[in-house]
Design goal:
With about 350 residues, the protein is of the alpha+beta class. About 20% of the residues lie in helices and about 30% in strands. Helix 2 packs across helix 6 (about 335-350). The structure holds FE2/S2 (inorganic) cluster and fe (ii) ion.
């Protein structure tokens, strides 16, 4: 999976096109401006139409391949600013300066694009197969029930290495021993319950005897923590964490708690492959608005972001070692159940691709 493809035909096979990918935060696509993005090696030009929807066109003019993201918006249309071809939001060329006839082949590819929650999703495959109902449900950053803060990080690494990291949270006890995994050997010692989902996996677990830190100390000296997340292709991580009084795990018989938590944390993240060794990691962290004031959100977010930099340092270094000797085999352990199962699913999607 990591080996660099030798020929262009294999390069094509590397990506799963028929999938929704997060291309941007909605607030990044400002009215009147064109944003250049790359998703699975495809250059995209994104902009907002007058109705507020997102237009996603191939960022390559069909004339002489100038980037359309360097062009100009004229109402809902986009004019290439090299020689002036003008394109409608559906990708059709509607004007060629000094030429009456517009050939049918004068068009750029349009990608289905949707706003859900606070993310802009693009469908990179067959437009006819794009089903917006399949886009995962997420909480918007301005949802009144939650207090959230967002960010993003670019990685020089294959997206599946970042997925591996999110599919196996045992690393919290080690990579994050000074941040989000502090005093929590349970992350590595206890395995979560794993359930298959369509294009993903669900992980659930109780941690008991959790020592809260900082502003969370007011909740009690020790807490039971219920962590549940869905991880969906290509790298969407949707996690809820409930903090409970000691004894709740036992009362729940190890199952999902039926009672309201003392503190309800939310983490929503998405990994988007840009190129073979380049990925973008979008994330939001926070909690129910009643559980967290603005100041404590800053604290929670600062620790979380520090942890994400810890992951980035480690994974980019791991990628370099993999690339040194791509044929070397890794040693499987029982920690790898999630990553292994997810990769099998990805391979299945890849071989099912047309
Ligand atoms: S390259 Fe776009 S108009 Fe010529
Ligand atoms: Fe991590």
């Amino acid at each position: 999976m990591y080996a660099a493809p030798q020929d262009p035909a294999r390069e094509e096979l590397m990506w799963i096109c028929n999938a929704w990918y997060v291309a941007a935060w909605t607030h990044e696509i400002e009215p009147g401006r064109i944003q250049a993005r790359t998703v699975i090696d495809q250059p995209l030009a994104l902009y907002r139409s007058s109705t507020g929807g997102i237009v996603a066109l191939e960022d390559r003019c069909c004339h002489r391949f100038a980037p359309l993201s360097l062009g100009r918006l004229e109402g809902d249309d986009l004019r290439c600013m090299y020689h002036g071809l003008k394109f409608a939001p559906d990708g059709r060329c509607i004007e060629i300066p000094g030429q009456k006839l517009i050939p049918q082949s004068a068009c750029v590819r349009r990608y289905p694009a949707e706003v859900r929650g606070s993310w802009v999703w693009v469908w990179m495959g067959e437009p006819a197969q794009a089903d917006a109902a399949k886009i995962p449900t997420t909480i918007a950053l301005d949802d009144a029930g939650w207090r959230l803060k967002s960010g993003q990080l670019d990685y020089d690494a294959h997206y599946l290495l970042i997925d591996d990291n999110l599919l196996d949270l045992s690393h919290l006890s080690f990579v994050h021993e000074k941040t989000i995994g502090m005093d929590m050997p349970q992350w590595a010692d206890l395995r979560p319950r794993m359930t298959p989902l369509e294009r993903g996996l669900r992980f659930q677990r109780w941690h008991t005897d959790h020592p809260p830190r900082g502003f969370m100390k007011k909740l009690g000296e020790r807490l039971d923590v219920w962590t549940a997340y869905d991880f969906l292709f290509p790298g969407v991580f949707l996690q809820r964490t409930g903090f409970y009084p000691p004894g709740t795990a036992e009362q729940s018989g190890g199952q999902a708690p039926a009672v309201e938590p003392l503190f309800h944390r939310l983490d929503e993240q998405a990994v988007t492959p840009m190129a073979e060794r380049r990925s973008r990691y979008f994330y939001a962290a926070g909690a129910r608005s009643g559980d967290l004031d603005a100041e404590n959100l800053e604290r929670l977010y600062a620790v979380t972001e520090r942890a994400f930099h810890e992951d980035k340092t480690l994974i980019e270094a791991q990628q370099k070692l993999i690339d040194r000797e791509p044929e070397r085999r890794m040693l499987p352990t029982s920690l790898d159940a999630g990553p292994t199962q997810f990769r099998k699913m990805v391979e299945g999607l890849m071989s099912a691709a047309p």
